[in-house]
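Two quick folds needed for the group meeting slides. Do the first one here.
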Amino acid sequence: MDRSGFSHREVKDVNPLCAVVMGPAGTGKTTIGSAVASRLGWTFIEGDSFHPRSNIDKMAAGTPLTDEDREPWLAVLAERLRVAARANESVVLACSALKESYRSRLKIHDGIRFVFLSVPPQVLHERMLNRKGHFVPASLLTSQLETLEVPRDAVAVDATRPVSDTVDEIVSKVAR
C-alpha cells in the first residue's frame, strides 16, 4: 500500500492500459487526450465531467479547490479506472492530477501511465484567456501552478507543438 492507503495493484492481472493526460488548466488535456484515445481506439474519460457541482461552482467563482474538495472527485475517477480495468477496457483519462498524492490515488494498477503536458505559464495564461465555455477562469492558473508537483515518473511532452505532433509522441510512448 502507498501513503494514500491504496495498493497500486488493486486490480490484478490487467491487460488494458490507461494514459492519464495531466497538467494544470490550459495545457490541452481534453483536446490532446481525446485525440490520443481516438488514435488508439481507447475510451476517452473527461475528468472534469466527474467533479461534483460544488467543485464546479467553487472553481467558476475563482476559488481554488482544496485537497478535501478533490478527494470525492479522485475517488470517483479511481473507481471509473477500476471498472475499466475489470472490463479489460483501455482508457485515456484527462485529469489535472497536480500532486503526487492525487496520482497515487489514481494508480490502481501497473498499466497506468501518466503523461505530463508541459506548457510555459505565459502560454497557459493566454490559452485560458482565449478559451470559451470552460468553468475554470484564468484567475485560477496561479493556484494550479503553485499546487503542481511536477511528476518524476511521467512521460513529459511539450504541448506547445501542434496537437498532431504531441499526439504522435504520446502514442509512441504509451502504447504497447
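Then this one, please, same format:
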Amino acid sequence: MGIIVQKYGGSSVADAEKIKHVANRIVRTKEQGHDVVVVVSAMGKTTDELIALAKSISPNPPEREMDMLLATGEQVSIALVAMAIHELGYEAISFTGPQVGIITDSSFSKARIRHVNTDRIMESLRQGKIVVVAGFQGVTMDGHITTLGRGGSDTTAVALAAALGASVCDIFTDVDGVYTADPRIVRDARKIDVISYEEMLELASLGAKVLHSRSVELARKFNVPLRVRSTFSDDEGTKVMGETKMMEDIVVSGVAADKNQAKISLIGVPDRPGVAAKVFQTLSANNINVDMIIQNASIEGITDMSFTVAETELHKAIEVVKGLKEELNFKGVVWDRNVAKVSAVGIGMRSHAGVAARMFKALADCGINIQMISTSEIKISCVIEKQFADQAVRAIHDAFELGKKEE
C-alpha cells in the first residue's frame, strides 16, 4: 500500500514503556499493509544531558566533537525501538544516519542534507523488515559525523519521505497538532486542522517548536504530505499542505514567540557603500545566521546598525564584528540578550489591510514597546523585551480572535 515514514520525538521514546507503546503503533501500521520507515530521536532529555556533560569538560567544545558526542543519543533509541518491534514478532533493523547514507555538508551542529542513498532502506523493506533510522545525524563525504541542529529528526524524516516517495510523513510528538499559539502560554489556543507549507514554515522558523523549519522547507520543495500527530492518541492531527483558496479567508493563522534572540548594534558606523556588505558577508562566512536588520538615518555621514541573531550564536557574532572594528572604523559594539521576537503569520495578510496596525495596537494597549519590525507577505515580526513575550503572544492572539469559540 506504499511507504509510510513515521518520526517519534524524544518525549515519545523517553522510557521503556513509551518505547513499547511506539513499537505497538509501528506494528499496527505494518499490519495495515504498509512498508514502514521509522525515524527516532534520542530518549527524553538525553541530548540536553550530553550537552551539559560536554560543558562540564569544556566551556567551548569543538563543534566536530560535539556532533560526535550528540549523535550517540539516537543510536541508543533506534536499537531499543528495533528490539521492542522484534518482541512483537516483527523483523526490524536499525541504522544510524551514516549507515543509511544520509550525506550532509560539513557545517557541524547545523549541517544540511545534500543527498540520501535509499538502497539500504529499500533492500530491507523488500525483505519485509521495518526500518528504524537515527534522526538528527548524517555524515560528510569525507566521513565526519554531523548533526542537523535541534529538532533535526523532523528534517531526517521528511528527507527520507521525499527520497523514498512515501505516501505520507507522520511527525509524532507529545501534542496533537499545530495550534494557533503555544497552549502553555495561551489557554484558549485552538488546534489547526489544515495549514499551508508557507505558514508552517514561518511559524516553525519564528519559534513554534512543533516542527523543525528545514523539515517544512523540504516538505514544500518536494510536496511531501506531512501530518503532525500525537503519539498517545489516534487523532488525525494537523495536515500541512499546499495553499488553497479557502486559507486566504483566515487573516492570521497563528502567533509565535522566539526567546532565543539577541540584538547586536554597531555604533557610529561610517555611512558609505560596502560597509553593510562587509559586515554581513563576514557573519555569513562564519556560518552565523542574521535575522532582522535595521539601520538608522545617517547624521553627518555616521549611522548605527542593529541586527538580531540566535542567542546561542551571540558570543561568536560579537567576536566576528569586533574583528571588523578597525577596518570599518566604527565606534563600538553593544548587545542585548533581553529581547524576544513575537510574530503573527497568515496567508490572508496578502488580501487584508490593517493587519500591522491591529498588531501594533494590541502591543501598545499592553504598554509593550517595539524595538524592531520586520514584515513579509504573510508575516509581521516585532522585537520586544523578553519579559513581555508571553503577554505579547496572548494580546496578539486575542486581537485576531484566534481562540476557541464558546459553544
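Slide caption for protein two: DSSP finds 14 helices and 20 strands in the chain.
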